[in-house]
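Budget justification, computational time. The allocation requested in the original proposal was used primarily to generate structure tokens for proteins on the priority list. As evidence of use, we reproduce two of the resulting records. The first is shown immediately below.
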Amino acid sequence: MRFSTCVFVLLSVATVTSSTFAFVPLSQQRRSTSFSTTTSSSSPSSSSSSALFLSEEIKEYRKGLSQIHKNLDEVGGAAPKKRTDCVFKFGGSSLANAERINHVAHLIKDQIELGYRPRAVVCSAMGKTTNNLLSAGEFALEGRVCVDAIRTLHVNTMDEFQFDAKDHTRQDVNALLDECEQMLTGVRMIQELSPKSLDQLVSYGERCSVRIMAARLNQIGVPAQAFDAWDVGIQTDSSFGDAKLLPDHESAVQKAFDNRIDPNTVAVVTGFIGHDPNGKITTLGRGGSDLTATALGAALRLDEIQVWKDVDGILSTDPRVVPHAVALDQVSFEEASELAYFGAQVLHPIAMQPAMKYNVPVRVKNSYNPSAVGTIIQQEKSSQDRLVTAITYKKGITVLDISSTQMLGAYGFLSRVFGEFEKHKLSVDVLASSEVSVSLTLDKKQDVSEINALITDLQDCATVTRKDNMSILTLISDVNRSSEVLATVFRVFTQQQIKVEMMSQGASKVNISFIVRSDNLEHAITELHSCFFDNKCSVEPMEVTNKVLLEEEKEAVAATAATDGNTTSEEVEAVAP
């Protein structure tokens, strides 16, 4: 068997909001499972424990793996045809408890047996540990130190795996939890929790998680070693809470893997955290665990980065709006970035940058359905001939219409307008302008008081009209066919009496955005998805209509010829499409 090397990424499945939709969560009914540290024993308790591994869930999972082997030539992406180095990434919900960690550990083992060779497995904190740590910080500021829930989760997980009291994993995790409690005691005493201290506080979740995962992999026969991210070269600046990778992190990663990590050992690495030049712990901000995975995959020039979620891949739209939304086989980095920016739960655009730099494909896979191909994100667009790739949206948008005759033929007016936005630290999603006006949108996450102050300042030089309860509906599409897309969209909107408040085509040339009232949003998405993906347009697309008109014209010319006898057959054929 030929082996593949890869990086596995375990992603958290965040709480789904009204503006996120790229993935369909699977409803699962899971049984509680006991775990044994060995695979064979003559004791009744050990036999009982082993039997529990053969639960219906595991049986079904094994059936799925058997199907993979049977269909390797039929299902692309199910297993590599050559050795493929990769990174795997798993998030908090994938590691929520002992049962989930056990499931992931066996998934990794099975993927290795299929021919993959993970150079690294990037893990988030277990379940809701990060949120619990943040809450513990708030409690400490109020005078209470409590890590009971966090300690209970990790200790119970180690108990399920029957880690011995003298096992170094149990000792390491307990030491980290004790250190966390001591830190919170200090916070209570000095009544201060700085961004630097907060980064250290939340780091305990990932640091405990990787040690438990590595130990479980070793138990089931997969050589593994836990690493804090800074020990494998993840170096950042000192922007606590939203640190950026240093330019020389690539060479540091390469050096670490060359000198410290056995190529036959899986490095289980903390996501989300790093070290600044002074050795202080930092966090990478939104999408940080994804960024850790793509940074490792890119620095090591691996063949693939696999992001394992609880869903089959990226979908054509929000399945809560369109239940039969279809899975996409492939999207480009540019398309995925636009999808993420406009609300879809894909990789964060910043996390895709390392993979884009070296064109390392990122595959979104389902840990509950490993035989599914998933969605591949890479430089090239899909070879499928599709007018629209996906439909995404953002709700709760505010639109500002700024108009002034001072704009006409004047220099510096827009500079003055956007100077006010910079002053109030407000960012713009969508923008459209004319000779005397500019319209733009503000996300609902922006500071309301700053928006009000901005409007007051702008009214000194312009008339400002504010519209709330709006939504951005974005089509990820082929710019070369934008005329067809726009013609179809406006025909649908006209027939369905959906008013467009504003329209903009992004500079990326892969998105077209429409601003509509929020109460029209879901209806608009349903109608457009039916048109572009189900071939059930309530109005015929432009090319179909043109064909019908040409046929009608041809019939009219032929009828005229039959009547007066003066029209030639060449004139009739001249109107053919």
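The second record produced under the same allocation is shown here.
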Amino acid sequence: MKKIKAYWSPEQIANVWKESQKEPLSHETMYQYVYQHRPELVKIYFRRKGKKYQHDRKSNHQILNRRMINKRPDDVEIRHEVGH
């Protein structure tokens, strides 16, 4: 509980435990213990619950001074130069 109160995640604790102890300890076991026996610690010491919320990646920024495609010069349609 000391490491949880020091804001360590159960995954971090399980990794350190694996290196120093013979018996394995799962991070899920730690989560279950805290949820069942110390639920008041969940909101205080665990950063989030469940999957991380995915933000919408769309950008609402508009391009400044943009040219509309229908207002470009007529000679562009002739295409005398490759790539222009």
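A brief technical remark on that second record: Residues 10-20 form the longest helix (11 residues).
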